[in-house]
Amino acid sequence: MTQNTFTSAKLALVAIGGNLHSWAGSPEATMRAALRQIVCLPGVSLKAVSRFWLTPAFPIGSGPDYVNAAISLQTDSAPEALLAALHDIEAHLGRRRQGARWQSRGIDLDLIAYDDMVLPEIRTHDHWRQLPPEQQAENAPETLILPHPRLQDRGFVLVPLAEVAPNWVHPRLKRSVVELLATLPPGALEGIRPLNT
Fold first, then answer.
1. Is the pLDDT of residue 42 over 70?
2. Which of 93, 112, 143, 179 is the most buried (most CB within 10 A)?
3. Which residues are catalytic?
4. What is the pTM of this model?
């Protein structure tokens, strides 16, 4: 894995989830297997792991409930290199990135944010963040978009993220994770509950 070294480590926020079994076992067992691999990545230090949360599949009715969590990392890897490493872990656990968007999967490792970086640049980020809902399922960017363009809309991301990075501020929306969570529309948190493990 090619890495760029920065003068100081950066904060990376990663959402973890899955709703199907993998060779490692249940979704929660698969997430734990992914965490064991993440902590072995060079240039990465795991700082915090949220509780595991049961969340309804998105879109509603598209499959079994998900198990979701969030982690915060310190890293000297460039965001593209870190994402490539996360995709390698997904592949090792049996994930195949093909087919329809938002389909059921055994593991999903999404790079949600990297410090206060906006990628690839402000105009493109704003375009993808403001994409109408009916186009989101049909269109996927061909480049890394950071922060994740749907971050502010998803309770299943914000709830666990608030446990590991409550004060991280979205560089375009100028709101913290806690503030974004508080401004979700009614019903956005329906069905989200801690997984008792």
1. yes
2. 112
3. 95, 105, 108, 110
4. 0.90
